[in-house]
Structures are given as structure tokens and as C-alpha cells.
Amino acid sequence: MEITTLEIIGRLVLALILGAIIGIQREKAHTPAGLRTHMLVALGSTVFTIISYMVLNMEEGVDITRISAGIVTGIGFLGAGTIIRHKDHIRGLSTAASIWTAAAIGMAVGYGFYIIAIVAAFLALVVLLLEKPERKLIK
Questions:
Q1: What is the pLDDT of residues 54-96, one digit of tens each?
Q2: Are 42 and 18 in contact (CB under 8 A)?
Q3: Where are the alpha helices (DSSP H) in 59-92?
Q4: Which tens digit of pLDDT belongs to each residue from 96-111?
Q5: Which of 48, 79, 102, 127 is 20 to 30 A (C-alpha) from 70?
Q6: CA distance linking residue 5 with residue 88, whole number of Å
Q7: What is the spatial distance between Cα 38 and Cα 15, in angstroms, rounded to a whole number?
Q8: Which residues contact 78 (CB under 8 A, 6 or more apart)?
């Protein structure tokens, strides 16, 4: 099935919006990766996914899972850069996970799984907003 130019634009805009939803929360939490990072991760993952999907339609026998696997691996390295260890304290794990989630959301948008992407963004935001009360429950 071919994707129209309008649908491509819609997917890219949706990816930016969903990345922004997560990024705004990370920005307010004063993390190293905030609004722009999450928007770009979601957008980039969407672009790579759309390209792989379009290549599949142009050429038979293409393994589009290679690009998906590459996104996951590449984002893992990007997320690892946000993790900082200082003595016995580790910071940045939630930010790394949110970057990884933004990439997954971007991939879902790229493949046209809009409901999955929207629900995942909402759930990611809920988890990130629970950060403070969660710490109080554990202590």
C-alpha cells in the first residue's frame, strides 16, 4: 500500500506532537534531554520507518526489520549518553527510557499504528508524572 504525501506529512507532524508531549515533561524535570531531543527522536524514528516501509513497496524481498532494529540500537546509544553515575547515585535512567519510548512511538507512527502511538505517549507521560509520588511510596 502506498503512502500519500499528505499522509506522510500527517505522520511527521503527529510524531513531533507525541515527542513533544514526553519532551515537555522531561524539560520541566530539568533533564539533559528535553523537548527538542524527544521531538527529534520521534521524528527521526518516523522518517526512518516511513522510508523502510516505502522501500518495501518499491522492492520485493527487502527486510524492513533491519531498519527497525537499527533504530532501536542507535537510540540505545543515544539514551546511554544521558545516564550519569556519581558514586552510588545513578541519574538519567528515566530520561534514557523516555528517549527509547519516543523512538518506539515514532516507529509506530511511521508504520501507521496511530492508536498505539497515542496511547503509548499518554502512558509514558503518566509514568513520568508519577515520578515524585512513586519515590514517596518507596521510602
A1: 887 677 776 777 777 788 778 877 777 777 776 777 777 888 8
A2: yes
A3: 65-80
A4: 899 999 999 999 999 9
A5: 127
A6: 51
A7: 10
A8: 41, 99
Q: Which amino acid is at 17?
A: I
Read off the C-alpha cell for 134: 512513586
- Reduced to 3 states (helix: H, G, I; strand: E, B; else coil), residue 85 is strand
Nine-digit cell string for 109: 507512527
C-beta of residue 109 within 8 angstroms of C-beta of residue 117: yes
Find out whether 50 and 8 touch, Cβ atoms under 8 Å: yes
Q: How far apart are CA 53 and CA 43, in angstroms?
A: 15
Domain ranges of the chain: 5-138
Q: Is the pLDDT of residue 35 over 70?
A: yes
Rounded CA-CA distance 41/26 in Å is: 14
